[in-house]
Every structure is written in structure tokens, then in C-alpha cells.
Specification:
The chain is an alpha/beta fold. It is built from 7 helices and 7 strands. The chain has one domain: HUPs (Rossmann fold), CATH 3.40.50. Strand 1, helix 1 and strand 2 form a beta-alpha-beta unit.
């Protein structure tokens, strides 16, 4: 039986929801983030505020919250020519993928998370990737996650489970999941402290949280909030 987990925790809406769910399921939950030269570097500060808020507002979860890790992945930013790692406009590429796609990002994240989990004695990797409300990133697909789970388990000679709680949920359903896990207080933590905006905007406050309101991440989060709040659940 799996009792411990490592959550890939960027500090955004999705990873915060995944962390909350892990805290309801596992006895010990650690978190890991990656500094890869992202334009929205502010997420690395926002995530610490989310962790602090969760400890303060959910005392039943606090004893389960283990060590937090931050790994330096500057090399990923160096080899990536994308709008998340360079100052360029958001657009679709000829490949059919948006230029927010950072090739190999999730594959590298999971590999390093697995190595960390191995050292820390953790059984489950939890990541907020999904196929429902996403931009077509190939490294977010269910097939990719299953392949990574097999490769990592074989390569480390240790049975690792990759858990993807949001794989088949849209953003409105993700908001609803957060409410089911922690009620209005958890939704408030996500609105106030989590960060999704690709431009790193923490100056403009909306009903759904902070952000520029026009980048792909903000638009997706805002549409999900509109559907969620319009259903009478907020």
C-alpha cells in the first residue's frame, strides 16, 4: 500500500489541488519545484505562500507535510527557445503546438522527481498534467505518463506510481475538486496565493486570482472559474 508521495508543486492552481488531494491520501507528502529560468519566476515565491497557508489553515494536513525541495534546472532554459523561457509573444507554431511548449520539460521533471523520491523513500509521484483543458502538450498526455512510469520503474528497479489526478478534468472541475477537498478555505488559498500567469503578473487581482488576464494560462484559469462559479458552486 502506498503511504508516501512526492508532489511536483509549482504553486499554480493545478499543483495546489494535487497537493491537497495527496494530503488527504498519504501519510507523508513532500513537494518539489524546478527553477528552469521561467519568465514567471514569481511562481517560486508564490508556492511558498501556498505551503504556509495550507499549514496554517488546515491543521489536520500540517503533520503530513514533509520537506520541500527546489531543484536548479537552468540548463533547461538554456536549451529551450520558448515563450516561457524567452521574452517573446505567445503564438502557435507551425508544428501545431503553442510556443509555450518547453520540449522535454515534464520528462525531465519526472526523471529528477523520481530520483529524489528514490533517495527520500517516497512511493508515488503526483503531477497535475491533463489532457482535457490543455494546449496539446505531448508530455502531458496519459500515454506519456504511463510510458514514464514504466521507464522510471524499470530504470530504478523500484515500483514507482505516477498519479495524475487532473488528467480527465477541465479547469472548472479542478476548481470543484479543490472545493470538495478543502471547502471554500482551500478555494480561497488557491485564488489568493497560487500563481498561473505566464507573465508573472502579481499586480492585477481578478475573481479567480492574480495575473495579466490575457496570457494563455490566465485565460484558461479565468474560463474555468467562470464555469465553476456560474454553476452555483462558488
Amino acid at each position: 500500500m502506498h503511504r508516501t508521495a512526492l508532489v511536483l508543486f509549482s504553486g499554480g492552481q493545478d499543483s495546489t489541488t494535487c497537493l491537497a488531494q495527496a494530503l488527504t491520501r498519504y501519510e507523508r507528502v513532500e513537494t518539489v519545484a524546478f527553477d528552469y529560468g521561467q519568465r514567471h519566476h514569481v511562481e517560486l515565491q508564490a508556492r511558498l505562500k501556498v505551503l504556509e497557508a495550507l499549514r496554517q489553515q488546515f491543521p489536520a494536513w500540517a503533520p503530513r507535510m514533509g520537506e520541500d525541495h527546489l531543484l536548479d534546472l537552468a540548463v533547461l532554459g538554456q536549451v529551450s527557445e520558448t515563450s516561457l523561457t524567452r521574452d517573446m509573444a505567445f503564438k502557435m507554431e507551425s508544428s501545431g503546438l503553442p510556443n509555450t511548449f518547453v520540449p522535454g520539460r515534464n520528462l525531465l521533471f519526472l526523471t529528477l522527481a523520481a530520483a529524489l523520491a528514490y533517495r527520500r523513500g517516497l512511493d508515488v509521484l503526483v503531477t497535475g498534467v491533463c489532457e482535457t483543458d490543455y494546449s496539446g502538450y505531448p508530455d502531458c498526455r496519459d500515454d506519456t505518463m504511463k510510458a514514464m512510469q514504466l521507464a522510471l520503474s524499470l530504470g530504478m528497479d523500484k515500483r514507482l506510481l505516477i498519479e495524475t489526478p487532473l488528467m480527465w478534468l477541465d479547469k472548472a472541475q479542478t476548481w470543484a475538486l479543490a472545493e470538495s477537498l478543502g471547502g471554500a478555505p482551500l478555494v480561497d488559498v488557491i485564488v489568493e496565493h497560487s500563481h498561473s500567469c505566464y507573465l508573472g503578473d502579481r499586480e492585477h487581482r481578478h475573481a479567480w486570482g492574480w495575473g495579466c488576464g490575457s496570457c494563455p494560462a490566465c485565460e484558461l484559469r479565468a474560463r474555468g472559474w467562470e464555469r465553476y462559479s456560474g454553476s452555483g458552486k462558488a
